[in-house]
Structures are given as C-alpha cells and as structure tokens.
C-alpha cells in the first residue's frame, strides 16, 4: 500500500539517510573547526565519542566504513591532535583509537551546532508538538525497525 504511514516514513528516512544529505550536514557542522575536521573525518570523531576507545576495525563496523578508510582518516585526526593511538590493554599487539581532549571539544562543538540547528528548525512549531516529536522519534529509534533485535 503506497499511501501508508510506513511508506511516508520510509520516504522521509530515505531522504535523511542519503549520503549526500549526511555529507552536507557534516560539512556544515565541521565548518571552521580545523583543516583535519570535515565531512570525511567527522564520522570517525563522532563514532569514537559514542564508543570510546576502540580498534579501527570495530569503529569501522560502528560507522559503516572499512578499517583501511578509518585508519587513513584517523591518521589525519592524529596529526591534528584530535585522536591518539594507544595500546590495547587486552592485547599488547593491538592499538586502540581514542579521542584527545581537543577531539572531545570538537565533538562537543559539532553536537552543540547540530542541536542549535534542530532547535532553530523547530522554532516555528508549538513547543508541545516539538517535544512530542522528540519523544516519538526516540521511541521509534528505540523500538523501530533499526534496532539490533529487528535485524
């Protein structure tokens, strides 16, 4: 049934999840935060903020990139002192990627920009509608088709 609620939501999600949409958003979020921070390296920073220190392979699975791509982007971020490599305490042969204080500050700045942009786009909504949307979106994310239990 093409006019179902599910179809409408799927169409809207398709627009949100497009690679070009994400790249444009990441470019806006990272503007002016330094040469190493851009739409390509932002997912590495943001992913590390969510996961904490982890291997390039584990981070790649989290953000949808292969280990080699993560490693190249991590190299740029390391040169800019936004992340560091550290020995894996569980395996002396392995290396973990971790945010530095500067890296955490950059992630905080991008998250503040994102929240401000969302708040601005919802400014014309009645507050109770915006709050209901936030609650319902959180519920959809927690219970909807994207949860690991649904895969």
Protein described:
With 151 residues, this protein is mainly α. The chain is built from 7 helices and 2 strands, in the order αααααββαα. Strands 1-2 form a two-stranded antiparallel ribbon. β1 and β2 (91-99) form a beta hairpin. α3 (42-51) crosses α4 (56-63) and α3 packs across α6 (101-121). The radius of gyration is 18 Å and the shape is globular. The mean pLDDT is 92.
How do the helices and strands line up, and which of them pair or pack?
Elements: H1 5-17, H2 19-30, H3 42-51, H4 56-63, H5 67-79, E1 83-88, E2 91-99, H6 101-121, H7 127-143
Antiparallel strand pairs: 1-2
Helix pairs in contact: 3-4, 3-6, 4-5
Structure characteristics:
151 residues; 62% helix; two-stranded antiparallel ribbon; mainly alpha
Task: Give a nutshell description of this structure.
By secondary structure, the chain is mostly helical.
């Amino acid at each position: 049934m093409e006019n179902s609620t599910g179809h409408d939501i799927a169409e809207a999600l398709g627009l949100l999840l497009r690679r070009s949409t994400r790249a444009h958003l990441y470019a806006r979020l990272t503007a002016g935060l330094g040469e190493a921070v851009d739409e390509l390296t932002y997912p590495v920073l943001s992913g590390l903020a969510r996961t904490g220190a982890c291997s390039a392979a584990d981070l790649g699975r989290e953000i949808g990139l292969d280990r080699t791509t993560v490693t190249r982007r991590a190299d740029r971020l390391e040169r800019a002192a936004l992340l560091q490599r550290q020995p894996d305490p569980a395996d002396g042969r392995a290396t973990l990627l971790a945010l530095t204080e500067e890296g955490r500050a950059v992630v905080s700045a991008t998250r503040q920009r994102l929240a401000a942009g969302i708040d601005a786009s919802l400014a014309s909504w009645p507050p109770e509608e915006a709050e209901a949307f936030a609650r319902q979106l959180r519920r959809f994310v927690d219970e909807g088709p994207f949860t690991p239990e649904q895969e």
